[in-house]
């Protein structure tokens, strides 16, 4: 994901609210002519993309989730009470800072659950475009200088309580620890390690039989052997 990526979350299909309707075509025009244009005016180098440009409308694909997690910035238009928008906003808030919430000043009242969040209001007019670009530029500048600062209540609580997020990155456990952890799954494997540690020469046919019962352990065991030559046959 490019460091200049900006993903836009907003309602895409026809939206019904308070007895009114806004069509998908109107929303597309708002994205192209107002929101995207304002983002590009504020930061011309940003690569701006909306969900329907990478997926069928109404679907939340792997590509969309990836962009939510990894994009440098996410702009979320919460003008209309759309479930996908709120779900995607929640995913982003749980992932990282760098989110800007916007809404049309003439739209329906913001739902109570997110009413406390800071947001930028805009008017869908020519002057509104200029004002939105200015506000977005200010937000981008602040985030560039405070890239690790939480920008929502969830991340603030995570920081305050030292919450440890699951780590799905590189597994950096020592090889010896991996071998022991895998061996604990089988008494025979535990016995094998004990015998090897005591210096016992294990017959090849027996070693192959034991290793064959656990391919994962076998891979770790052989890696250890190749690394330091300490395993005797």
TrEMBL record:
Gene3D superfamilies: 3.40.50.450. This is Nucleoside 2-deoxyribosyltransferase. It comes from Lysobacter brunescens.
